[in-house]
Amino acid sequence: MTTRDAPPPIGEDGRAYLDHAATTPMADEALEAMLPFLGATFGNPSGSHHESRLARRAVDDAREQIAALLGADLGEVVFTSGGTESDNLAILGAAPATGVTRPPVLVCSAMEHHAVLNPMRALAERSGAPLREIATGKDGIIDLDGLAEACTPDVGLVSVMTVNNETGSVQPIAEVASLVRGRSPSAVFHTDAVQAVAWLDVAGSTALADLVTVSAHKFGGPKGIGALVARNGVGLRAMMLGGGQERERRSGTQNVAGIVGMAAALTAASATRTATVARVSALRDRLGDGLLAGVPGAVETGDRRHRVAGHLHLRFAGVESEAMVVLLDEAGVAVSAGAACSSGAIEASHVLASMGFGPDEASSGIRFSLGPTTTGSDVDLALAAVPGVVAQLRD
Q1: In this predicted model, what pLDDT tens digit does every residue of 266-287 receive, in sequence order?
Q2: H or E segment and range at residue 229
């Protein structure tokens, strides 16, 4: 990319970054913690000499911090390359270890991230296991009656995300876990909590889950590092074989700088969460209320009362979401039409389809996602830009 084509830095020259659900700016605490391990403290934590011991101590200290903040025991934290790998390890690693009939019945919500849906579907196709995908209501909450019907005694694995990545809807994870325990006692219960960490007390909200996925770059940490909390007693077959790191559950040299940065980001996010939620909620509400009042035909997706503070999802009748993303970017506003790893896809959102919206509605949704660095000026810019873009596309 040439200097002329490069976008200006976020927050400068009239740009508003409203795509924090895709990735967050790096927290200062995370960058500061990582720097020594990108330079002089470069040892491989699997070695036995002085340099390696320094690196291993850093990994151990970070693991202890992360475990405490996620409500896990020290040995329950498995470091991975991010949310996708953690989801794959949870599904492909746990399913063969379940103690039910072979192949086990699989259950998940139909609005899961593709990092859950695709492994579930691949596992079902490969093994012949039945896969039951549960729809959600127009409020974005999983149909608990449908889940109860699906959770028969022969179910071996259930996955329901804590917070949806597109709409921000918070799922009743405690109720889901209780339902699974009662109706499918042999099942392993996994939750993808990638979008939850910045906004919720994940230690409390996922306490009843057997497997919990988190990813650092969603809460101010670096890309390329995440974790899977695997509760003691849950069987997990390794997907990556090699030197036996992470207690034989995920081989490969640990990303020391990333792990340290993740711990620092998680610590900072946890310490400031209450204040951040209050401030960002107010900004999100001002943005949402302003666009609903100022753009004819704008409709909010789901129930704002059951959504995390940083998410606002709107549908604009008669507008194609991908085109709107492009024009808003040209106007200086960074938003998304759905999951970042699906951008460029022409099909309508599978999340909105799972909520019962038709193809036209499902292809008109825009996700505005705010974060700790969002300012009132960012909201002002979006309020000024969106009405004109919508009018241009409808003309």
Answers
A1: 999 999 999 999 999 999 999 9
A2: strand 226-230
Strand partners of residue 16: 333
Q: What is the pLDDT of residue 225?
A: 98
pLDDT in tens, 25-60: 999 999 999 999 999 999 999 989 999 899 999 999
* Ordered structural domains, the chain, with CATH: 16-27+273-394 (3.90.1150.10), 28-267 (3.40.640.10)
309 three-state secondary structure: coil
Q: Which helix (H) or strand (E) holds 300?
A: strand 298-300
Q: In angstroms, rounded to a whole number, what is the distance separating the alpha carbons of residues 24 and 31? A: 13
Amino acid letter, 84: T
Q: Is 151 noted as a catalytic residue in this protein?
A: no
Rounded Cα gap, residues 311 and 148, in angstroms: 28
Which residues lie below 8 Å from residue 330, measured CB to CB, with a gap of 6+?
none
**Catalytic residue, candidates 341, 345, 384, 393:** 341
